[in-house]
Amino acid sequence: MKFLDQARVHFRAGNGGNGCQSFRRERNIPRGGPDGGNGGDGGNIIVECIPGLNTLIDFRFKQYFRASNGSHGSGRLRSGADGSDEIIKVPSGTRVFDKETGDILAELDNPGDHFILFRGGNGGLGNAHFKTSINRAPRKTTPGTEGEEGWVDLQLRLIADVGIVGLPNAGKSTFLSAVSRAKPKIADYPFTTLSPLLGVVNVDECEFVIADLPGLIEGAHKGVGLGHQFLGHIERCKVLLHLIDGTSEDITKAYKTIRDELEAYGHKLIDKKEIIAISKSDALDVDNSNIQKEKLSLKTSSNIFVLSSISGSGVVSTLRSINTFLEESIEISNKEKLEQDNEWYP
User: Fold this and answer.
1) In the CATH hierarchy, which top-level class contains the domain 162-342?
2) In the predicted model, is pLDDT for residue 189 greater than 50?
3) Distance between CA 46 and CA 276 in Å, rounded?
């Protein structure tokens, strides 16, 4: 399944209503004084995280959103109604960036999280507000102020248990198609995958979600290549499956390139559980496969799997290792939650 994981949208909060200039005019009350009401405030642009959404597909067809304006004040001290807020609904894991500066304006990870992105304008003041003991009949009013507006970039970090990392053309898409029903584009050239794909994997009567993410190259933490678009998705994965092309001339360099980028990006990506697998073993004989594994073992103490997505060799053992870690992490999470509950309810 393809996911729209980013969108550029323009938001505009509502303008405030104008204050009213009015004087009380009733029979037998020739000097009733000022009774102009204040204008209403403009509506805000509010981004809210809700359950049930998985993509940013709604923003593909609509890019402009506007909250309603506040109503103008009127006579008899009647204030204008406030404008209605525009609620922008987004899925869990959405980040909001300022288009101009690139700064993060909001992160919405859990349903119910919300953030006022742009505030509506203030309502203007009616002439009744300016009445004093000296100036009994002011004709002064103020207009409502304009609401805030601007372009923002929305980015969705995928919710997946496992993220496949590796250099371009490392066999990530082939692996995903072999272990799930996902049908990614597969070709013998780099950057075949340009958008994230998810697949559901079943192993030993258990299932988990695995994400095929665009290939990573040196300098990605600075935005080179697909850069931050790639690395942002990894933050929410519980475990990383690091695929390394077994036919690489320098397999240790390929491994180190990915590890360096994860560390440079930060956000504790380097600390995530990593499962290493040498892919495309069907293109190697037994001796070359062992040589590549020995070279890689000098750079990491982690267990190294050798697999072929074409023949299926080593695939099941790799999936079982992933599933074992995920089950252990669930047990740890449940234990921590139970301990926290016991602290609140001794």
Assistant:
1) alpha beta
2) no
3) 42
